[in-house]
User: What shape does this take?
Amino acid sequence: MSARDERAALTPGTSLHDYALFRHGIEPDGRIPFDGYPLPDGHPPEPSRPRAGWSQARLALTAALMPALADPDPVRASEAVHRDTAALAMPHRALRSHVSRLVPPDEDAARRTARHLVRTGTTAAAVTVGMALLIRLGEAEDTAHLKTLGMLRGLAATASAALDPLDRQAAALLELRGRISSDPERALISAATTGAHEHTRSALLSIPDTVLAGSPRRLAEAADLPGLLRAHPGDPELCAVSLRLLHDMCGQADDRTEILDYGPAVPLYELLLAQPDLLPPTPDHHVLLLSTALDLHSGPAALLDWAPGRREALLDTLERSLSGTAEGASPLLADWIRRHARLPFARTPAGAAAGGPPALQVTAVQTGADSSAVETRFLVDGLPLLPALFRSGRGNAPEYLVDYAGLRAGPEPREVQLAQAYCAESCCGALYVTIRRDGDEVVWDGWRGIDTKRLPPDCRFDAASYDAEVERAEQDLSWCWPARRTARLIAAALRERPDLLGRWGLAPSGVATAHDEPDTTVMRFVFLAPDGAEDRHGQPLRLYFDWRLPDDGSPPEERAAGALERIGRSDPKGFAGLQRGSSELAAALGYSRADGSDRDT
Assistant: This one.
């Protein structure tokens, strides 16, 4: 049996810290398994589920640990923590979450106890408590001990969280080691762990863009991106992947925006954009530089701690660099470039900076040429509003904010959802504001759903300027491509003429462009059982249909008119694709399965 697979039979009572050092010391090549070393034989297994609900567990843990954390004797306190965590039998993730939120009555005593647990603790639960306390209380001297414990299976996540304020690269390497799946990522971690810049560069460049987008900040931290660029000055491939990582950190499609948590972001932008012409003039690089400009102008990167005038100077540099055309670009890329070319370089109104009320700008940005996602961005005196208040999702689509809900201020206050979490409102929330007119001002107040530490003051806009900007946004369709324009026209017609679908027993559930095919318009319908039949949960039986309309080059007005005419004369259930729903109802319509396949004709 190899040393890696063998669990050492150490003396009972050996600390997990010493056990980790021993396991690492007997490795022939000194490498740490990607899933960590197993805990010693006989170690109690981690509880799979809590005995109590989340709130009850938090109260029980607080009551149990607070006396120990106030004890000036770390040895006595550690014994109590071992005893109490064994009795509570909580999953380690729950322990970490609850303990990291505790506010000890005596921070110095709690820090001493945490260090004693980290260095001498014999159970994973007790050691997890120690590391979780160091998330708030840790100092530089704790770094080496946390890195040691992070080598053990099941402890890396808590060790990484405690290391985050102390050593970002070590924290990133620990976090990535436990969840990577591709060979290039494994190669990056191995090279970065040894500090081999050339191997780190090669591994980073071999990681596909889709993988980079999954963990951009952690990959940048693990690779020590600033150090890598200093070791390879003027490297166009490394510059391109670095800009890609920064751009991905600004994204909010599948996760919280990360750019504001990336410490070296400002100097890295300065370094990379000092010579943007280093990148070969390809269409992809043109899109990358333009996307970077959008991030700096109206995206989260604008909120970084910029020295006065530096962000504007970088945008000026990018504007000069992007003055040419992207020769050889595909029609899709060329259209995206054309529609966004001037957006990041528009001069902002003076507003409050000139002694007047704040100035509002409303703009719509398609997040990528290969994506149908379009977000509404709000700039107040030239700075983006939404990412300063809500980091869990991007602004809602202009069809909702500008067309459907509307930003106009009427005589009565009205609450408007500005953004929704990337997952769902029921999961991670949404951002709301109340819009009201107050004399010659329009007021945004009554904020709800803010997930940052910033509490905004009421925004008071000059009513005439506000109305003019909202009207301009309503008329501005420069962001809209043909398939999206077709979708907007169809959606507007269906709102005005609900009978078009109603006559067929259908209701619209959305008209948009396909997520992964921006040039395809998708109409979605819902069909409810006409006899009111319900399923076993008491919900009406229903079927969901999609009708996909690929762009054929004809004007959107003609495409929309043709689609509406067909709906008017033919039941869409006969030509739209059945996606899902009640098998019973599907069979009644001639489908053998509720996914729409094998329809009887």
